[in-house]
């Protein structure tokens, strides 16, 4: 699978004691041009990608030797994802090594000393996995829900943008091994967003404001601008990093074979005098429970691919048998039944007795006297009722609908009135009519509503024509009764 990602990184840096901030944007390494901040967008199609934000204690912006070392470590992960057949579950251990080697030593330093952190995410064949360390955070924004990819310490409520409860909020988090936090392997969907940020962003903006921000943003670059405004307003002196990638499209790659796989056991690190630069593998440590997400889709695709050819053969065989039976029947009619179809054949079939009856039997016609009297009240009411019934029969939408979890009101309008092909103005009018028709279930000007509630659906004539047929029919009926 080829993934098209539009990714934007926004950052604000300050010269301070301790670790030095930086980022890696799928091959783009932060350098001297980004000493004070960054605002960069990358739009790319690729089978594999690598993104990271970090703060490194190994070097400062003036030490080119350590910068080159960090870049070599980051480039290796990027090259493995882009140019090799290495699978994402095989790369997780290398990503953990990269987090440790890039971030460097953690100390018990003063409050004014910045501690190192790391948040990295790899993409391969439309699947993602993330690793975080320290104050690095990684999230997946999907269906108005902010899912944590790793179990960071920021407290999240299990709710979506609209305040509705969300089950299994930590479904994409795998666990921790020493200081490394791992994610499960998750399959991407179109319109997904991944987010890598420093903890300062979530502490300043908060979950509720972040959800509203992501819901209102037009694209990933717009969300970066909103984060910058909020950080400058609420925490003007606090450095931060915020990277967001938007899944624009998922393209099939014929050379990629889809298989069901499990993530490899991650490398487990032990602290050694607070020095994480020279850490060794602890083979006796319990493995982290890491599992792929949505592997059922892979197995179903394989099943569907292998079974489709058999289905086509069966359908073709049945169709050939039907053609043979039809040909034999036409030959029998032409040569053995003198070209006459039997009476049990629709449209063409007729019996000789029926032909004889229709030829000899007279047609009795009874003429009713015609009067020029005006129609009675009953006739007028019956005609009006017939017209109203015909109009009601043409209605192509239900009277009431239960709203589903995660379904926005605009999506509900599009589904209910899909047969009417409403334009933008008509959809806006339909939304207003829906809110007006359900004042007890939709409040706060359409911002508050709950899944499972049964909503009354307004008549389409109230929206499209502005002169509802039902009201007109009722007025006509009332007038007829008065006459």
TrEMBL record:
Where is composition skewed (Low complexity) in this entry? 370-384
What is this protein's name?
Answer: LysM domain-containing protein
Q: Which InterPro entries match?
A: PPM-type-like_dom_sf
Recorded source organism is: Amygdalobacter indicium
Q: Where is this region: Disordered?
A: 358-384
Compositional bias segments (type: Polar residues): 358-369
* Ranges that cross the membrane: 312-333
Q: Which UniProt keywords apply?
A: Membrane, Transmembrane, Transmembrane helix
């Amino acid at each position: 699978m080829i993934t098209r990602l539009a990714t934007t990184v926004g950052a604000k840096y300050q010269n301070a004691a301790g670790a030095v901030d930086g980022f890696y944007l799928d091959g783009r390494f932060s350098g001297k041009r980004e000493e004070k901040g960054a605002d960069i967008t990358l739009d790319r199609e690729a089978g594999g990608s690598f993104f990271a934000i970090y703060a490194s204690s190994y070097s400062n912006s003036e030490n080119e030797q350590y910068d080159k070392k960090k870049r070599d470590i980051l480039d290796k992960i990027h090259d493995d994802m882009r140019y090799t057949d290495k699978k994402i579950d095989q790369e997780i251990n290398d990503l953990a090594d990269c987090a440790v080697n890039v971030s460097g030593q953690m100390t018990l330093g003063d409050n004014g000393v910045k501690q190192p952190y790391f948040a990295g995410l790899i993409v391969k064949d439309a699947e993602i996995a993330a690793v975080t360390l320290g104050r690095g955070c990684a999230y997946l924004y999907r269906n108005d829900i902010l899912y944590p990819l790793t179990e960071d310490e920021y407290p999240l409520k299990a709710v979506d943008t609209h305040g509705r409860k969300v089950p299994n909020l930590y479904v994409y988090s795998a666990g921790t091994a020493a200081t490394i936090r791992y994610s499960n392997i998750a399959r991407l969907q179109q319109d997904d967003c991944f987010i890598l940020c420093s903890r300062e962003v979530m502490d300043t903006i908060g979950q509720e404001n972040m959800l509203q921000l992501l819901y209102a943003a037009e694209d990933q670059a717009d969300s970066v601008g909103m984060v910058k405004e909020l950080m400058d307003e609420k925490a003007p002196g606090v450095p931060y990093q915020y990277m967001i990638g938007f899944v624009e499209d998922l393209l099939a790659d014929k050379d990629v074979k889809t298989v069901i796989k499990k993530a490899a056991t991650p490398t487990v690190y032990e602290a050694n005098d607070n020095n994480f630069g020279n850490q060794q593998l602890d083979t006796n440590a319990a493995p982290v429970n890491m599992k792929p997400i949505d592997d059922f889709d892979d197995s179903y695709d394989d099943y569907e691919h292998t079974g489709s050819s058999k289905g086509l053969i069966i359908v073709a065989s049945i169709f050939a048998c039907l053609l043979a039976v039809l040909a034999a029947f036409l030959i029998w009619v032409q040569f053995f039944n003198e070209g006459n179809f039997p009476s049990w054949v629709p449209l063409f079939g007729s019996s000789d007795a029926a032909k004889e009856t229709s030829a000899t039997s007279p047609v009795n016609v009874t003429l009713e006297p015609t009067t020029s009297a005006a129609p009675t009240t009953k006739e007028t009411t019956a005609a009006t009722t017939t017209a109203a019934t015909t109009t009601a029969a043409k209605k192509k939408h239900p009277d009431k609908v239960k709203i589903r979890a995660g379904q926005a009101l605009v999506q509900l309008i599009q589904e209910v009135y899909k047969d009417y092909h409403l334009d933008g103005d008509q959809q806006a009018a339909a939304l207003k009519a829906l809110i007006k028709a359900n004042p007890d279930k939709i409040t706060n000007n359409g911002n508050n509503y709950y899944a499972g509630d049964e909503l009354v659906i307004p008549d389409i004539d109230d929206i499209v024509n502005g002169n509802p047929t039902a009201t007109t029919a009722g007025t006509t009926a009332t007038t007829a009764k008065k006459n």
